[in-house]
Predict the structure.
Amino acid sequence: MGTVKAVCEEKMKKAIVALREDFNGLRTGRASPALLDRIKVDYYGEKTPLSQVATVSVPEARLIVVQPWDRSLIGEIEKALQRSELALNPSNDGKVIRIAIPPLTEERRKELAKMARHMAEQSRVSVRNVRRDGLEDLKKQLAAGGVPEDSIKKEEDELQKLTDANISAIGKVLEEKEKEILEV
């Protein structure tokens, strides 16, 4: 019986972790190594995450520096950055790639905030779907018998509290990201 709540709790936590990862890929006006987490580089015929072929650092608030471990990859890394949906303009000096993060326009900031709200809503839907599945499992237990109705009711209440807490956590994560996106 308690397993339904535990399974639901685990799935809801995963929805929030996934939202944070999605948010890391949203560009703000600040430089962040997490911006490049989804960049994959062609490394000897394999699509390899940038973090596995180079060191990514942020020496200044609006600058990302990528230092490949193998200098022959510098061209591939630069191409991968240019192809990304981040609209970045990398420059390389043969040793490192520098990426200046330009300030976002007001219009682009609003667009990104809207995208963030959409991502958060997807996470809320995911959490609610987990609750729905959990409630169905509890109803099946009740129908199968052997479990008192009042303990099922208690489980349903706990599942609702868990859902409310996770929805609230998603709201806080969204609030932080919107603040970061909208700051000039």
